[in-house]
Amino acid sequence: MMKRFKSLTLLCLLAACGPTREIEPNDSYQQATPLKAGRTAVGTISNPKDQDFYRLDIAADAVLSAKIGGIRDVDFVLSLLDKDRRELKRVDETTVGGDEQLLDLGVSPGIYYMVVSNKNEKANNPSQSYELLTKLEPSAAREREPNDTALSAQPVEAGGVLRGHYWPTRNLLVEDPEAGEEDWFSVEVGKPGLFLLNIDVSEVPKVDPILEVYDTNGYKLKEADAGGVGEGESLRNFGVRGPGKFLLRLRSKYKTAGNPDAPYDLMTELLPYQGRTEFEPNDQRADATPFELDSIQGSIAPAGDQDWYKVSVPEGRFLLRADLSGVPGMDMVMALKDSLGSDLSVIDNAGREQPEILTGWGVSKGDYYLVVSEKSGKKAGSRDPYTLTKKLIAWQAGLEWEPNDSTATVQSLKVGESVDGYFAPKGDIDWYEFNVYQKGVVELELTGVINVAATMTLFDQEYKELASASAAKPGDPVSLKRELDRGTYAVRLKPSDPAQNNVRDKYSFRVRVQ
Amino acid sequence: MMKRFPLSFVLLLAACASSAPKAPALLPPPRLERHAAQEPPEVKDPNFILVVSESVPNPDDDGACFAKVFIDGREAGKTDVGRKSEEHLLKLRLPAGNQPVRLEYWVLPAVGEWTKLDDSRQPRERFVRVEEGSLVRLSLRFSEGESSNNLTLSREPIPR
Fold first, then answer.
1. Which CATH number is B114's domain given?
2. Which tens digit of pLDDT belongs to each residue from A412-452?
3. Between chains, do A365 and B120 touch, taking CB under 8 Å as contact?
4. In the structure, what pLDDT confidence band is assigned to residue A8 with cuts at 50, 70 and 90?
5. Whole-model pTM?
6. Is B129 part of a structural domain of the chain?
7. Do B145 and A408 touch (CB under 8 A)?
8. pLDDT band of B159, cuts 50, 70, 90
9. Cβ–Cβ below 8 Å for A433 and B124
10. Rounded to whole angstroms, how far apart are CA atoms A291 and A280?
């Protein structure tokens, strides 16, 4: 008796552990075969139009996956429906004989239906069984399909990692048959204030990802598409104002590319904004990041990125100096713009991986903009930040006041005085003007500057050239002596070769009467 | 009785004053006539014209201004008074020769009296050669809230 009971118990246990065989007829919701999530079902496609319904009773929030395959002749389609028989996801990625996979389906306590069907009208293999494998996993830190639209975006908490798949490649539940799969996530910023959102998407073989950020009105705020196939994407220092909600859209660039085997990791980080980094998007004047501290960090991403920084100058006259650090693999360019966004000066002195320096530009009360970009517009590097530093130096007599590049913006100088200035940026020309009130011999002296062979030209008040002198070689001083009548005179200083410049060493120019 | 009359008159005035609606406490717009410089006299056959203007992006900042001209250290005249964004002219008949010309720009703030612009923001002094038969036009244009100015000189023959 005991032996029999033991054998029966063992049989029952084995039966519980083994696959669930479909119970035909199971061609409708009412006749659905119960299937415990996490178990495998075995069934057959008795005729090309056969549909097998399985009912899953879910007890807790989880992520459900399913895989079906194993019959030659059959072109499987696999669907998941909720208790209201609303189709949540459908996969049909392969053709006859191929496997189908449903991944990352977010399920909650309740009833779900899984429906197996066939598309091949000529299928005729009623004796061969398929295997429908299901897997139920905890839903923490997992993508929860369906999250294919902004409306169904999955809420994610910034500051964690979430795992998902670029799978399936197509969304078969929308009208557009070509619609690709998309994963939408929403990030809620609960606290008031300014924050920086950093987002990283790990690499997945065969997939070239695109990451986009939208506001709740559906406006695209930023797109990251710097990497290629098999590479990740990164969005750094994306500025958000709290409280607020932002939507992330992640998709494969190429609609037929996906990967059911390798998941992506979506990492998000929310940091309080402290003015030390750019506040993306800052791609235009209206969105310029306020540059209030002495230095700020930013990065060029995606390719073609332009970072605008607003420098507010208080009452007074100042020289604005700005230093932009070099970035690995990039040739950086810095521009100074006025309050309307028009170019005042473009700094492109140095080459790849070298710093750029705005030696000093005369500014007064108002807003100015420093714009940082990469020269080719084709490079990006969100993980290689640049540092931009600025200094407002109170202007005083004896300092060059840029712009003084033309006779219209000439800088006045009194006889007996000197002025210190730079031959920078590349192509810089400096004009000075002085008055001679009594006829006499006037001497013009210009100190030498390393890397620059300077030319000094004297003009009368009608801008007729009177005399010119050039340094014999770079670094040499230049001087001119001439008897001058009463009048106004202008002096033009420039490197003999426009490519010569020196952002480090100042020249000193003096006008004196003998 | 005669002593009481002024008291009742004062009371009546006070009543009138208190019943009148009060005007909103807004700052009045700058009055151009406040100690304004006089209109420059018409000069016959001028050989020197000064044109002064300012770029004023915000209409609220478009206060009143004028400019004084000093030739060889002596005041030679003033432009008309008007809004900064308008052109202000001064026509002069100067003796031929190379003259040092200095300009002074004056502005009328919303509150207070006429104020000479800070020396560091005034246009530079420069010599202007005046010749028989030609008209010198000196143009001064301020921008960036008077922190920057552009002084240009042109010459044209005087039509006979």
1. 2.60.40
2. 999 999 999 999 999 999 999 999 999 999 999 999 999 99
3. no
4. very low
5. 0.73
6. yes
7. no
8. confident
9. yes
10. 13
**CATH 2.60.120.380, domain A154-272, yes or no:** yes
Note whether B126 contacts A461, CB cutoff 8 Å. yes
Residue B23 lies in a domain: no
Fold annotation for A285-394: Jelly Rolls (2.60.120)
Those residues whose C-beta lies under 8 Å from the C-beta of residue A261, and which sit 6 or more positions away, are none
Residue A506, min C-alpha distance to chain B (Å) = 23
Which helix H or strand E contains B127, and what residues bound it?
strand B126-130
> Topology of domain A407-513, per CATH?
Jelly Rolls (2.60.120)
What are the structural domain ranges in chain A? 18-137, 154-272, 285-394, 407-513
Give B42 to chain A, closest Cα distance, Å. Answer: 29
What does the pLDDT read at residue B39?
Answer: 60
Q: How far is CA B17 from the centre of its chain?
A: 37
Secondary structure in 3-state letters for A93-154: CCCCCCCEEEEEEEECCEEEEEEEEECCCCCCCCCCEEEEEEEEECCCCECCECCCCCCCCE
User: CB-based contact (8 Å) between A312 and chain B?
Assistant: no
Stretch A210-223: mean pLDDT: 93
Structural domain includes residue B8: no
Mean pLDDT of A195-217: 95
Side-chain half-sphere CA neighbours of A473 within 13 A: 0
Q: What are the tens digits of pLDDT across the range A120-162? A: 999 888 889 999 999 999 999 999 999 999 999 999 988 899 9
Inter-chain contact A364–B144, Cβ cutoff 8 Å?
Answer: yes
Angle at A15 between CA A13 and CA A18, to 5 degrees: 110
Nearest to A365 among B98, B126, B147 (CB): B147
Q: Which pLDDT score is estimated for A130?
A: 94
pLDDT at A514: 83
Please name the amino acid found at residue A132: L
Question: If one looks up domain A18-137 in CATH, what number appears?
Answer: 2.60.120.380
- The ipTM value here is 0.73
Name the residue facing B124 among A412, A462, A486 (closest C-beta).
A412
> Residue A164: in which H helix or E strand, if any?
strand A161-166
**A357 with A348: CB under 8 angstroms?**
no
The structural domain count of chain B equals 1
pLDDT at B106 exceeding the cut of 90 = yes
> Measured between CB atoms, which of B127, B144, B152 is closest to A488?
B127
B145 neighbourhood in chain A, CB within 8 Å:
364-366
Identify which of A362, A409, A461 has the shortest CB distance to residue B129: A461
- Evaluated on CA atoms A139, A140, A143, A146, the torsion sign reads positive
For residue A511, the chain B residues in CB contact (below 8 A) are none
Give CA–CA dist A23/A433, Å, rounded: 101
pLDDT of A5 above 90: no
